[in-house]
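Objective 1b of the project was to move from sequence-level analysis to a structural picture of ligand recognition. The entry below was assembled by the postdoctoral researcher (A.K.) and checked by the PI before modelling. It contains the amino acid sequence of the target and the SMILES of the bound compound, fe (ii) ion.
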Amino acid sequence: MPSTTPPPRIHDDLVLEPRDVQFDWSSLPLHWIPDEPFATHTINVLHLLLPEGERWFVRVFSDALPMITDDRLREEVLGFIGQEAIHAEAHQEVLDHLLGQGLDPRPYIRQIGWLFHRVLGDKPGLTGRRRRENIIERVAFVAAIEHFTAFLGNWALNSPGLDRAQADPTMLDLLRWHGAEEVEHRSVAYDLLVHLDPGYLRRMRGMLVSGPLLVHLWVRGVRFLLAADPELRGRIRPTWREAQVQARRGLLPDPKAMARSAARYFKPGYHPTQEGSSSQALGYLATSPAARAAATH
Ligand SMILES: [Fe+2]
Ligand SMILES: [Fe+2]
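Corresponding predicted holo structure:
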């Protein structure tokens, strides 16, 4: 049952500003971490998942808006919706570029679209209490996924291995701008969930569904990209061992650190502000070429 007790407000001064960034992908190499196709495509899975996934976040949060009784939280949710809508379109442009390079992402995207529209989408037949329950359940999934996007965003902001490997600077800016906004708004989905249902069971269910689903989609995505890459033609097969090797080199997030981070979501005293640094995120956004250009036009 929803609580009448207001949730703790940790982000009282949070003003989420959608930054209308633009990126030019015309010179992006297929393997934008030079000679590192496995790491490139493991990160590229973000471009496969996020356009559909973040448009789904926007729909879920738009459905939840009329249920919010806290004006400040409503403002944060509106800011979150604005940021996620821009994130989705920024990653969509990378997908369009991949298609132009001969890597057709559409078979995978069709599956992701089916998942987010048919399985996790709005159920038009539901009304009243059942509709409210369905929306809160989906908010719980978003809150758990946002734990991972904040983890990945924090990693992107602290990934000098990508600079050492001379990864494409425009892609690095995309990952770090997006990562910084994920860290910046990391509390919103969780605070919305607690506002609608502070129960521990719902939060746990959100992670128990979203965590394994995300890992499954990621593994499938890496396999798909490596097989569809016109230069590789399936010569590289992904393994967990290789993922760990690349993580040690700083080219990928450490899967074990990600699992430990997911486990922290189960702690009774958990709050997203315990992960990542808002000041580091805002510091990056103050210097990001794309965010700075967005601020001036
Ligand atoms: Fe995002
Ligand atoms: Fe997000």
